[in-house]
């Protein structure tokens, strides 16, 4: 029993995945995830049958809010071919390592709410693996109100860009990370799920992405009528290189 961090109501806590379970399944049924062990005496990686979840965030009503957001967003992201689990993965227009594609989401604000909810879950989680995802109490409360519909979304709050990996690759269980991107050192939280990466920008809504400055309501960011998605060949992606780096540093347990 406890207080739901999303609804503020008292009840029995339920299991809640930080990133939806359907987007973090092992590549084959019965296989397990590989992840670095926490504070090991030796560099080891361990195997888990399930992806990251927390039992101290929400009660059933709160999880229902998150499940509704997840279900809508996952269906739409799959329909747009942006996930490896899509019926057909969206192909780049050319053979370049990096490309751009324009996506017209049916309800872009709902898609944006999904990514904001991932950030909220990671920020309020008590799991030690998410200790680097730090937001102020005011930011957490703003996100909470947006998620439950108590407050209109503000596109200048955590502008989010998307990167699609264009070929299916290995499933893995790495947590969101804080990262500096571009020459000006902009900070983002990087979330990975099933071949799609979200860069949630932490500061300054007017950022140099395509021009200087780019306003937060530019289509480079999720939430507008059309969204520009960066497409990257999986073999040349940071995500795959990061996975290789981790697995090469740890010994199988």
Describe the structure.
The strands form four sheets. A six-stranded mixed sheet has the order 7-12-8-11-10-9, with helices on one face. Strands 4-5-13 form a three-stranded mixed sheet, with helices on one face. It has a two-stranded antiparallel ribbon with strand order 1-2. The chain starts with a strand and ends with a strand. By secondary structure, it is of the alpha+beta class. It has one domain. The protein is built from four helices and 13 strands. Helices cover 24% and strands 25% of the residues.
Short structural summary:
This protein is an alpha+beta fold and 253 residues long. It contains four helices and 13 strands.
What labels describe this entry?
single chain, 253 residues, alpha+beta, 6-stranded mixed beta sheet, 3-stranded mixed beta sheet, 4 helices, 25% strand, globular, disordered C terminus
